[in-house]
Amino acid sequence: MNRSLPFLLVGGFLAVLLVVLLWGSITTTIDFGQKGVIFRTFSGGIDKKKIFDQGFHFIAPWNKMYKYDVKIQEANSMMEVLSRNGLTIRVDVSYWYKPKEDRLPLLHDEVGPNYHEKIVNPAIRSATREVIGKYLPEELYSTKREVIEDEIMNRTRKSIAGKHILLDDVLIRDVTLPTSLQEAIEKKLKQEQIALEYEFRLEAAEKEAERLRIEAKGKAEAYDIINRSLTEKILQEKGIEATLKLAESNNSKVVIIGNSRNGLPIILGDNK
Fold it and tell me: The whole model's pTM is what?
């Protein structure tokens, strides 16, 4: 019997046991929509050249894998801001962001996994206060909302430039004004809508009147042309043509050829 066999069996058992115990430390799974960045404890820290894709991976037990969600993420921030005239406005801002996938090692090294709390959210809040402070409440409430959203997004993008983060969109979901101001704005908007509707009706009436005037003018010109073309000789010829057609009718009649005032024959007849 080979004396080394028991030692081999014990060694194998210990190796398997060690793998089982360390399995969670030497393997990792990156889910869909994620990327991984590895920290190499004994070889330079963050590996800035390698980004791990989704799937199963082996790693050394002394290294550590950091996983980042690289899908578009949504967050919102509610805050109170001052408008241009000093009134306090409560706004609810939603925004969409994600880390730049090819910059994940740099993002992890310079900012870390909590980049939203450290970079994105403060930048959004600061840009929102700065932009809304340039406008009146009624502009935010109605006419300039899209312009304000674009300004907030552009200002935030400028603020986080170089931070390895992508800001996809910004949306003002809700605006809460003081009750008295909101009622005044709604009343003003309603009056403006009534005025626009009146202007539209007035313009439509003017266009219809112009159409009728042009139509009447056209008819008058047509009648004038017809009147100028109907000379006495033409009328006589037309009368003769009509008389001849009547004479060909099966109804009994008497046609008297005479010298009437208009020079046309006189037709006398009775229908049986």
Answer: 0.60
